[in-house]
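Re: that chain you flagged

S.,

Sorry for the slow reply, it's been a week of failed gels. I finally had a moment to sit down with the sequence you sent. For the record, here it is as I used it:
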Amino acid sequence: MVERYVMSVDQGTTSTRCILFDHGGRLVSVTQREHKQHFPKPGWVEHDAMEIWRNLERIAPEALSHAGATPDQVAALGIANQRETTVLWDRHSGRPVGRAVVWQDTRTDSLVDELAARPNADMVRERCGLPLATYFSATRVRWLFDHTPGLRERAESGDVLFGTMESWLIWNLTGGPDGGVHITDVTNASRTLLMNLTTLAWDDDLLAFFDVPRAMLPDIRPSTETYGRASRVLPGVRIAAALGDQQAALFGQTCFAPGEAKCTYGTGSFLLLNTGTEPVRSTHGLLTTVGYQIDKEPAVYALEGSIAITGALVQWFRDGLGLIASAPEIETLARTVEDNGGCYIVPAFSGLFAPYWRSEARGIIVGLTSYITKGHLARAVLEATGWQTREVVDAMNADSGLALKALKVDGGMTADNLLMQFIADVLDVPVIRPMAAETVSLGAAYAAGLAVGYWADLEGLRRNWHRAAQWLPSMDPGRRETEYDCWRRAVERTFDWMKPGNT
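Prediction finished late last night. Pasting the structure tokens below so you have them in one place:
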């Protein structure tokens, strides 16, 4: 009997990865290719969408070749993607109108201030569950209109299309200018500032607020559904799932019940809590977002805490300060001391995300004395990730009324045992890492396989999940709260650093 697989594409911020999974959720082959990061001006971050498409053209056949497989052995393809990165392209030529504007890009900060000053600005969060911030897609589209002559008119006529990365890749896979399918899924649409969180449709009032024409927008579809078949790269393969990368990780961690949560620790970190089939409106600085939607079933919602700088702080410690030669060395250095020596590092390099959303904040180191060594600084770097996680979990518990009982974790930073223990200590709940490290890719594969019957149901996916490691809390409660108070006082000192005209 010929083996059949599910293919997953994880189109991330720094690279695109293609993985084949078997029925047990085991990784069969993996290929990956990085793409260039463009920084044309301070605060600007861009990608070449054509480069990313060409990378997929190369790595998808390679993944099949490594497994000795052919496209007809692929039951379905699922795509996970960097969520808010914005691509505009010409429907007829298939060429982007410019580089993609990446989710990290902050060029729209003055536009966001201008929009926030409007008398009807509160309507935005009410309709879509998101704050007005540079993080999301609609402000990027509006900025491109304002700075590219004739672009709005081309969009109004339907000659220019908008999408996030999964839309761009699906359109190209299904034919591009020759009949490509222009769709997005509910999780990615929920990150644009343009989708009504209740109706799961583009909202006329939000489109008017941001002045984005409906003609350029993709159709919104469930996260698991056969959108079409590939006509290029993987001929005949069903494209059956799309999810934003963090929602894909939620799915890959099998957080299918309300109250189950995962945190992905990478360059930044993203904590998602399943809140069930009713959206929970945050009053504590979190994002209300769609977790996933399986075919025609009701959507499952999530609360999200987005932390801008976690792994990036370790990279800065390595590359900016030169205090370690490789990222894993930070754990060894941090273990040379018993505690942080009273030193705290708040990494507000480009403002603070959840739960504060303070774009004017900037990073600080507090508590410096002559006693502090590079070991204490290393420990403070790791602890910054733990305390930021604690702030997000506190906000989630307050918003949802669901007390977190355990946290499933994934991402590169989970290899740091000292950090994982510290997170368990400051949250006072078990922290659990699964056997499968590639939870984003696995989640996209699970969703696609579910859509075509490769996996029968959610319980079957749960049976594939296996624990690799667990950390249990052991910190004295008094110490936990004393140090948390110090952390919060440190955070307050980052506020209001950037003033108008102060760059």
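What I noticed first: The mean pLDDT is 92.

Talk soon,
D.
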